Here is the input.
Amino acid sequence: MDTEQIIAVINMLQKQFDIVDNTWTYFALVSMGVLGFVVNSPQVVNSVLRLAIFQVGYIAFCAGNWLKLSGSYSTLRVLSKQTFECDPGIMFCAVAKSFASGVFSAERLVTFYSSMVLIVVVGIYITYKKNKKEFLDG
Here is the structure.
């Protein structure tokens, strides 16, 4: 790879990292919104069916978000492999490799994302139980 190709790969990596960052931000905002709604919603507190529908809706969102996120990471992994083929003597090769070194492996991504979804789903349930107890007691 020559310098122009490396610069092109760096630009593509940066665009993909921006997409990944935006997707993670969207996931975080929706997750926080879901938890915030459950905390402050008496409608969810008084119905197991509503809680289940809410959790299924959140999981459906997560499935769609996962498709976007995993596709973006796949592209990052392909681009990062290209950077490791560049000659260290060529200008910007080290920059390209440093960009590429931050890409999660597929296994790490699955583990982390699944853990985050599980934490939110369990958090919804715990919040529901706590709010239901307070609703019945108070």
